[in-house]
Write a structure and sequence with these properties.
300 residues, alpha/beta, TIM Barrel, 10-stranded mixed sheet, 10 strands, globular
Length: 300
């Protein structure tokens, strides 16, 4: 029903206005055909999302942000991905439920929102009961998010930057902080404060992720301060130290290393000083390539 939006596409903040129905590709690199690189139980999300069952993650190809340090670069630029129909996507949702997934986890799906809605409607008519997690870069248009009201139970956005210059340098999106702020506000409006069920899984709410970048703890502390002052305990904040340099950066040399323990502890100390109570922190050796999923078309 919403597929006509692809005719003059403004689904993401790039607002390319290309006719994807006629095969044109916008900044995301995708036309109207759905492409996905993996659909499987994913154990590496936050404990309230993956738990012991695993999250039913569907990794979509293409991305409207394309950060220069992206760990999932192969699918972000559209090099990986199998073409599937809306009907097949609905079947994938149901198959993940049959495999015992705790939830349905839609990873980087902004440019496919019309097709996702259609697939969810088909799957729900066939009995899909899983809560839906919308896993996002945070670079979203509020108008697109409003289409998802009633379809998404849990929002899992990033808040990558408080600093516009960093956003422009690393993601070619100077407006990222502005767009992410508005997007997260809409997400929280839809879900309200976080709600959990007895087994510890989140049933409704918004969890905002922040990836610490090497050499940029000031940005991290600014992000955490803004989120906590704006939302308090209505959201959970997930602070990640898993930054992995997967290919060499010529221009931004600081991105060629992992986050140091000192940098991570500085950000955690800052979070504690701010009074953040509802949060997740990563412990142990998370910054390694084995945590990057194999985009081998499993489950697609």
């Amino acid at each position: 029903m919403y597929e006509k939006l692809l005719e003059n596409c403004t689904l993401c903040p790039r607002e390319c206005k290309v006719n994807r129905l006629e095969g044109m590709r916008g900044y995301c690199g995708m036309d109207s055909r759905i492409r996905a690189a993996r659909a499987a139980l994913h154990m590496w999300e936050e404990p309230c999302i993956s738990g012991k069952k695993g999250s039913g993650a569907v990794f979509f190809s293409g991305c409207g942000l394309r950060c220069c340090f992206c760990q999932n670069r192969d699918i972000a630029i559209g090099d990986s991905g199998k073409e599937i129909t809306v009907q097949r996507l609905a079947d994938i949702f149901l198959e993940l439920e049959q495999k015992g997934a705790a939830n349905l986890n839609l990873v980087t799906g902004a440019h496919y929102v019309p097709q996702i809605i259609s697939a969810l409607e088909i799957a729900r008519r066939k009995g899909l009961m899983l809560p839906v997690v919308y896993n996002s870069s945070g670079y979203e248009n509020v108008e697109t998010l409003r289409l998802l009201e009633g379809y998404v139970d849990v929002y899992l956005p990033d808040m990558k930057y408080a600093n516009e210059k960093l956003a422009a340098a690393f993601s070619h999106a100077e407006d990222y902080p502005q767009k992410a702020r508005a997007a997260i506000a809409e997400m929280v409006r839809q879900t309200g404060p976080c709600q959990f069920v007895e087994d510890g899984y989140i049933r409704r709410g918004t969890i905002v992720r922040h990836l610490i970048l090497p050499g940029h703890t000031r940005n991290s502390l600014a992000v955490l301060k803004e989120l906590h002052e704006t939302y308090g305990n209505d959201i959970f904040i997930s602070v990640m130290n898993q930054y992995t340099p997967v290919f060499k950066q010529e221009k931004y040399q600081e991105l060629n290393r992992k986050v140091t323990r000192r940098e991570y502890e500085k950000v955690l100390d800052g979070a504690i000083a701010l009074g953040i109570e509802n949060g997740y922190f990563q412990d142990g050796e998370t910054a390694k390539e084995s945590f990057i999923p194999a985009f081998d078309y499993e489950g697609v």
